[in-house]
Amino acid sequence: MQPARILSMMDPSEATNTLEQAGHSQRGSVSSSAARHSEVLIYLVNNSIIHLTVDSLSSLTAGELARTVREVLQLPDQAYEVFSFWLVSPFLELQLKPKHCPYKLSRQWPDLLYRFTRCSADDIIHDEPILQYRKNVFFPKSKELQIKDEGILRLLYEEAKCNILEGRYPYDLEDCLQLGALACRIELGPFDREQHNPTFLRGKMGMFLPTNLCKKHGGLLAAFRSRGAKQQSYEEMLLESFRQLVDDAACEESEVLKPLYCQYLQKCHLLLYYGSAVFTGQIDKPIQSILQRNGRKPVTIAISLDGVSVMDSKEKCVLLALYFCELSWEYTSSEDEDCDDILWLEFDGEEGGAVVNKLLKIYSKQAELMSGMIEYCIDCNSASETPPVQDTVAAKPPRPKEKRGKLRRQNSVVCNRIQQLSTIDYVEEGKEIKRVKPKRAASFFTRQLSQGPASYSAVEVTETLEQG
């Protein structure tokens, strides 16, 4: 069985109560007649499969299974903290803790789908997860750059490339060309002018560039080119980037791969959503006219150790990307079982030239999981060494530093699109929050920094705003 394309991702690895409740559901009984010797299939991100024969499958933990996989892949002990096991289906992804039992959780899969997705009854009955070995969401990218083992770096590279190609990590064409060139060097070897030509690459473009990005290229920007100018093909642009890569002539081919893996990962590290857990939800569409009916837009919400990103599921672009020091959040549950819970994100913005607080309302059955993960990520950051208050702003992770022209910057898929969000704008007066737009003495961002780098507050949502 080949793993299906991932449509949603969640990581309730710290939501222990959720899994414990599932373990005590009516599906919680484990058959005592399970065979003592069982075959387990472990999927890697590159779709290769590890076949294992194990004893006592019903009680085998993810931590015990990790030891066996590490030996098969010949990885060092560091792999224990870099990678985790995931239960994956087209509807849901679940990162497991070392103490979790994959077999027991797979038996609870219908309950988890019912609670955290909007699957149809037929999908819930027939969906079956696979067991996948891939990056631990809570392994910081700063530690990735310290990894020396080529096997670990290879797995991290393959996972990052998969997320780039599938559009789960939106990136602009010029950046994808740089990543694609590195992938060409890794997969095809040194550039060969005679062998590596557009015809050679034509059937292999899906290995190096995101399909959805190539389809968009040439729209608005092409209109500004002269009519007589010949537009480069994607193959020609990729080959040009590939040709510009310079190898160290003194290095053996076996010594070149590790630096290439690191270059690829470093480029991906510029993205706030690199290494994130991705959830599904919806947001309200802005009303364009009086006659337009209000509707909702499907979005994916990526939560990493650094912050939260909201992305357009269809267009594969960023709508909102915020570091944790730039936001507050709140989770509210719905009393109606048929309605989604809500995750509120609060951040600073402008409206009509006035500084206002903005509230974004995200509808999702996974809102509770998202709130729990945000809290856990903030706790992880607080537990690490924190810089002095006066250095907090400077210590914020850097955004991509490439300078771009105004037109290209406005069309970048990684820039915030606040104008495409339907938000509730308000200012605070005393203990209440009101939807008005006067000037205020200090922004939310300034107030939060004054409380210290590890101080985060939740949004206090009034009943009036919740209904709005």
Notes on the protein architecture:
With 468 residues, the chain is of the alpha+beta class. The chain is 33% helix and 20% strand. The chain contains 18 helices and 14 strands. Strands 6, 7, 8, 9, 10, 11, 12, 13 and 14 form a nine-stranded antiparallel beta sheet that branches. Strands 2-1-5-3-4 form a five-stranded mixed beta sheet, sandwiched between helices. β8 and β9 form a beta hairpin. α9 packs across α12 (234-244). The chain is globular, with a radius of gyration of 24 Å. The protein starts with 15 loop residues before the first helix and ends with a helix. The model is unreliable at 1-35, 218-229, 386-410, 436-456 and 462-468 (pLDDT under 50).
> How many strand segments?
14
Task: Sketch the major β-sheet.
Answer: 9 strands, antiparallel
The helix content, as a percent range, equals 25-40%
Query: Mean pLDDT, rounded to whole units?
Result: 78
- Structural class comes to alpha+beta
Strand-residue fraction? Answer: 15-25%
- Regions with pLDDT < 50 over 5+ consecutive residues? 1-35, 218-229, 386-410, 436-456, 462-468
Q: Helix segment count?
A: 18
The N- and C-terminal alpha carbons lie at a distance of 46 Å
What is the CA-based Rg, rounded?
24 Å
Overall morphology: globular
Features of the shown structure:
33% helix, disordered C terminus, 468 residues, single chain, alpha+beta, globular, 5-stranded mixed beta sheet, 9-stranded antiparallel beta sheet
Could you give a short description of this structure?
This protein is an alpha+beta fold. Helix content is 33%, strand content 20%.
